[in-house]
Amino acid sequence: MFRTRMLLLLAVFLSVSPSSWGQTPQIQAEIDAQLKALRTAAPLAFPGPASSLVAEELAIRALTVRIDRHLDAFWAKNKITPSDVATDDEFLRRLMLDLAGRIPSVAESRAFVASTDLRKREKKVAELLTKNGYLNHFSTTLRQLWAPQTIDNQQLQFVGNQFEGWLRGRLRDNAGLDAIVREVLTAPTLFARNRTGGMVADTANTPFGFNQANEFKPENVAASASRLFMGIKMECAQCHDHPFAPISRDQFWETAAFFAELQPAIANSNDAKAKREIRIQDPDPKKAKIVEARFFDETEPNFKDDVSPRSVFVDWLVSPKNKYFARNAVQRLWAHFFGLGFIDPIDEPGLENPDLIPELVDDLASTFAEEKFNLRILIKAITRSKAYQLSSRQTDPSQANPRHFARMNVRALSAEQLFDSLALATGFLEPNVNPQQRAFAQGPRRDFLTKFASTERATERQTSILQALTLMNGKFVNDQTSLERSQFLAGLTDAPFLDVESKIEILFRTSLSRSPTSQEAEKFSSYVLRGGTDNNEKKALADVFWALLNSSEFILNH
Amino acid sequence: MAISPLSRRDFLRLSSVGALGASSSWLPALAADAAANPERKRACILLWMNGGPSTIDMFDLKVGHANGGPFREIATSAPEVKLGEHLPKLARHGKEIAVVRSMSTKEGDHGRATYYLRTGNLPMGALQFPTLGSLLSKEIGDPRSELPNFVSVAPFRQFAQGAFGPGFLGPQYAPLVVGENGRFGAPQPNENVDNALKVQDLDRPTDITTQQAESRFDLLQDLERNFSDERPNLVARSHQTAYDRALRLMQSVGAKSFDLSTEPDKLRDSYGRNVFGQGCLLARRLVERGVPFIEVNLGGWDTHANNHDQVKNLCGFLDAGWASLVGDLKDRGLLETTSIIWMGEFGRTPKINQGRGRDHFPNAWSAVLAGGGIKGGQTIGKTSEDGSTVEGEPTQVPDLLATLCKALGINHTKTNNSNVGRPIRIVDKAAKILEPLVA
Questions:
Q1: Does A463 touch chain B (CB under 8 A)?
Q2: Which of A476, B256, B297, B358 is the most buried (most CB within 10 A)?
Q3: Would you call B351 and A283 a contact, using CB atoms and an 8 Å cutoff?
Q4: Looking at this predicted complex, what is its ipTM?
Q5: Smallest Cα distance from A29 to chain B, Å
Q6: Residues whose CB falls within 8 Å of the CB of residue B164, separated by 6 or more in sequence, listed in order
């Protein structure tokens, strides 16, 4: 009901025909009142520089409606009936995993369900975007995407953590993605001089780790930049012409040439020309020629002797004329919320991998560029979309294909999401360590991050036998479901003011962020009331908790 | 997609397993039976050299040429096979190994090359090709076996995650992974590897009774059914499959294979006390118990700098593990039915760079086949005097893999259904079997 109202609200606001959404006179009146309030009271509703915030809100709403229109059209054309709107429980759990990297607490989920605010879903998004959870989760996610080498390579871990800390700061400032990428691609080189003229690069306050992860090699940085920021996997063109993308071997090296100054011999050179050319690495001396920096789309680079060629590259990369940058970014952000982009893999475009809804990507990309690559605007629009609000339940066979977004895709959690959710559900208190050391600290979190790390698609990730054993038999889950070793469980089972049904309700809500269904309530209560297998009510509650924490519903995002 | 009814019964049997497993005197007898059994299926061991091994310093030396470097060439028990000087133990088994000196590909990027060699295909859009172990163990493994059909020892997956998984074959063909530590470099000598190679958390916690464990699983099964019935999806299916297989493994007597402490110290020493060496020993134990595919990974081959010192060091690990494996399998009569393939994602540049290293070189390099189904004691293919090109017909990746299939008695043109709806052959049909290698 709530969702219908919101859609109607948007529809009226943007003069879209609401007829298909089943309006009633009461709802219509409510919408009119809300609209009036929004129009007249905007400065009050949005403290601060009101006009820009209202403009921002308008942009978000406009984009949401366009997303919905494109998907509605796509579904209609392919005779797809989308699933139902997700319940508040379902929505909040998913939203918190996607934005804060963990499931909601019992208190958060109860408060959300109880709220009668019509705009509570979008308000929750806005609230979460200002919280540490978002900064932590997105900086971790970006670091894993942009500098995956720094996760498991011990020598790179330190700079990787610094890189993550830097990303966190940029996200806190809500820097545009163009600005963030600019800083990443023009980060200090190994031998660059710092402000006082020393040779030590400022690793802590710059995205230095990105260059180090790429071994300060122009060809590595160029390959990463093109894959991560344009969605074009150039690596293979390093040795031969690209099989799919229009990238030749020479073009790969011409791109790498923009990063020539990363080489120690050239870093502090005054030779401007040397900073924009590179020798193709080839065992055959005839092929090992020197090429000059050029854009593969034949745009003419505007070099100036006192401007780093890397800056010239970024100017071109984030220019509105370069459609690759915004398109790649929106594909990746969409995939963050749905498990898949519109093409898959995102960085291997080609005939075998067609874009299913190109108009939608165009719209997302152009709005993203118009809004100065403001991530929060894009996030708000995507999370308000009808597709994101859908249940993961399959209500019609036409919803089967995960690339059609006709129901929410069921996705694996990242290792961090899994552990942080387990910790929250079980009341586990992580030893207090400062954020810099946290990444190195030994303990259950580290163990989980190692054991559950994966780069597989979230919609297809495989649970290994070892992971299953860890969850079934491992020390952490065993401790957290032990009456002797878990304070949370001991406290819950001992609580004299709660009956068995309430205790089971709490176990469901802390793990699955919902109440049990009536059948579940009946089955689990009768199991506990008869004392499980040992004629012991408390032990039986521990069994219920174990089963909940081992369930797909807990382990997955849906 | 609920957990199969088998699981519940398996749980009931868990209690009796402890007792059976403890009296392990029957284990050697089981192993002896395995070798004698005429119905015995074949097994395959992949020795995967992550990073791209310098084959020019090991299997195709260019002594006297500037590209050759400082290593000498040594003779082996087979006149036709010559090796680098740092593989003296393997040289004793020259009659068992066949060196292919004509490998040639175009992929010089770790990720793509790893994917190519380990799946037989280049990454292609949404298609998820299975790794060799999943493909082949599906053909020669028993789906009902309690031990997994595919065990992977100490993989380094970061170059190409997809090259280490079952791809479109699905989760039931995924490997059981032990000894994974994410280390890209060479093994550390004298590290305690026994724990690393054990299956962690295999035992039910001591404070949980069998009955309790069983009813926990009952509760779980209901939750699973509700969730998956309403939301058919791949990840939950994989989650449930993993639980199923974990349960089967828990109640399997063969799980004792992962405990290497029952092996004689002297034998263990001969394999080398490191993850690779003990991984080779584990491979032999698993072959004895009917596991059809084991891969043992050795990393550290990305020798861009100081190549020769690093290769010498790595050869120490490789030589001990590989030579002991061949000898041990032979002693037990298992070598005839066990094919071994040794390879990395590419070779290294013949030209030695300024840092005394060698860089990525896919153009001309070597791979090795040995054991069951392979006519050992020979070298096929030839590279130019400087090692930079293959002279004569180059061997493509599908050719090598099809030859391995032939050695294992697998028809490589058989197809599997893929995730994009079209059938995909085990190995591309353009593959040409290297007939002289097949016994």
A1: yes
A2: B358
A3: yes
A4: 0.85
A5: 36
A6: B118, B131, B152, B155, B157, B175
